[in-house]
């Protein structure tokens, strides 16, 4: 079975669905699941956006698509419905840029269910930290947030629960952060979480996938685990570090999606040219789905 993994989305939820539809069509495969590694940008209202989401949102209209999904116009809803006729809904774990109180309230309202839909069209389902869910026949552990003192720090209870799980009892580990030492930032500081390194060493899943650092990184091997990090799904138009525009047309980034075959264990980054067809400040998903599946 095929699982597509998607890097940090930061609100561009239509780009995810469009890319998944084209992935099936252009590769001639069927996706059995789509898993997003956090920073979906799941905020309950514009007032709840954190400072950086607000700042990026000003120049990146597509980052407002998550809020549009919560109260969709008829044409927006039609695009999402057409996509969901072709692809599975998306499971996601918490990143450090989400409305964590709101997501927790959805789980509470569902009597503590591990997986809850977050939008009226049920396109996206949040998985609470520390759960192991069977997805496309694979046992997938989910641990969101990042190792950082403060409110986005890894949840102690969730970490303990997964550290208590038997080694080898999980096929795939999905996190937002990555293992310690996976890369360095612009100042040369080591990136990644020591706690996640210990969890990977203990659980020894076949595959680990994370995001957060907004660059593709892997494969890296930790015992019998192969680990990958995904790029940001839609990079910003420009950054303060680069004089040249990076992504003015808001195209999906090569290396932001990975495809995992649960039978063979093969994982590959998607870098196909058609990814760039999934683009725009105002993506017409109905149009993209119709054109892509014609
Ligand atoms: Fe992010």
What does the model show?
It is a single chain. This protein has 294 residues and is of the alpha/beta class. The chain has one domain: Purple Acid Phosphatase, chain A, domain 2 (4-Layer Sandwich), CATH 3.60.21. Helix content is 27%, strand content 21%. It has a 7-stranded mixed sheet with strand order 4-5-3-2-1-14-15, covered by helices on one side. α4 runs parallel beside α8. The radius of gyration is 18 Å and the shape is globular. The protein binds fe (ii) ion. Fe (ii) ion is lined by residues 8, 10, 39, 95, 97, 212, 214. Residues 1-215 form the Calcineurin-like phosphoesterase domain. GO terms for molecular function: hydrolase activity. InterPro entries: Calcineurin-like_PHP, Metallo-depent_PP-like.
In N-to-C order, the SSE pattern is EHEHHHEHEEEEHEEEHEEEEEH
Ligand catalogue: fe (ii) ion
Q: How confident is the prediction overall: mean pLDDT?
A: 97
- The SS-based structural class is alpha/beta
Return Rg in Å.
18 Å
CATH-assigned homologous superfamily: Metallo-dependent phosphatases
How is the main sheet built?
7 strands, mixed
Helix content range of the residues, please?
Answer: 25-40%
**How much of the polypeptide forms β-strand, as a percent range?**
15-25%
Outline:
globular
Number of structural domains: 1
Query: Oligomeric form of this entry?
Result: single chain
Major β-sheet strand ordering: 4-5-3-2-1-14-15
Low-confidence stretches: none
Instruction: Please tally the β strands and state the result.
Output: 15
List the SSEs and their pairings.
Elements: E1 2-6, H1 13-27, E2 33-36, H2 51-59, H3 65-70, H4 74-84, E3 90-92, H5 100-109, E4 115-117, E5 124-127, E6 131-135, E7 138-143, H6 156-164, E8 172-175, E9 183-184, E10 190-191, H7 194-203, E11 207-210, E12 217-222, E13 225-229, E14 257-261, E15 267-269, H8 285-292
Parallel strand pairs: 1-2, 2-3, 3-5, 7-8, 8-11, 11-13
Antiparallel strand pairs: 1-14, 4-5, 6-7, 9-10, 12-13, 14-15
Helix pairs in contact: 1-4, 1-8, 4-8
Fe (ii) ion binds next to loops.
């Amino acid at each position: 079975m095929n699982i597509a993994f998607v890097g940090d989305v930061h609100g561009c939820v239509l780009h995810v669905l469009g890319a998944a539809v084209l992935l099936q069509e252009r590769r001639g495969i069927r996706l059995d699941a789509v898993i997003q590694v956090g920073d979906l940008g799941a905020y309950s209202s514009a007032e709840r956006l954190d400072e950086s989401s607000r700042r990026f949102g000003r120049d990146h209209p597509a980052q407002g698509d998550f809020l549009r999904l919560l109260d969709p116009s008829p044409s927006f809803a039609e695009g999402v419905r057409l996509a969901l006729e072709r692809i599975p809904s998306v499971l996601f774990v918490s990143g450090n840029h989400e409305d964590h109180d709101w997501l927790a309230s959805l789980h509470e309202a569902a009597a503590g269910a591990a997986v809850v839909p977050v939008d009226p069209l049920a396109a996206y389902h949040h998985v609470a930290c520390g759960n192991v869910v069977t997805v496309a026949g694979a046992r997938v552990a989910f641990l969101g947030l990042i190792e950082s003192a403060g409110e986005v720090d890894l949840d102690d209870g969730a970490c303990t629960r997964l550290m208590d799980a038997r080694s080898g009892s999980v096929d795939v580990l999905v996190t937002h952060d990555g293992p310690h030492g996976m890369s360095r930032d612009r100042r040369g500081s080591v990136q990644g979480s020591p706690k996640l390194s210990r969890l990977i060493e203990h659980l020894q899943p076949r595959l680990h996938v994370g995001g957060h650092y907004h660059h593709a990184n892997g494969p890296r091997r930790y015992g019998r685990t192969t680990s990958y990090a995904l790029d940001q799904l839609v990079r910003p138009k420009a950054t303060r570090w680069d004089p040249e525009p990076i992504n003015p047309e808001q195209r999906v980034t090569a290396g932001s999606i990975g495809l995992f075959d649960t039978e063979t264990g093969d994982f590959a980054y998607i870098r196909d040219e058609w990814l760039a067809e999934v683009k725009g400040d105002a993506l017409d998903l109905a149009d993209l789905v119709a054109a892509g599946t014609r």
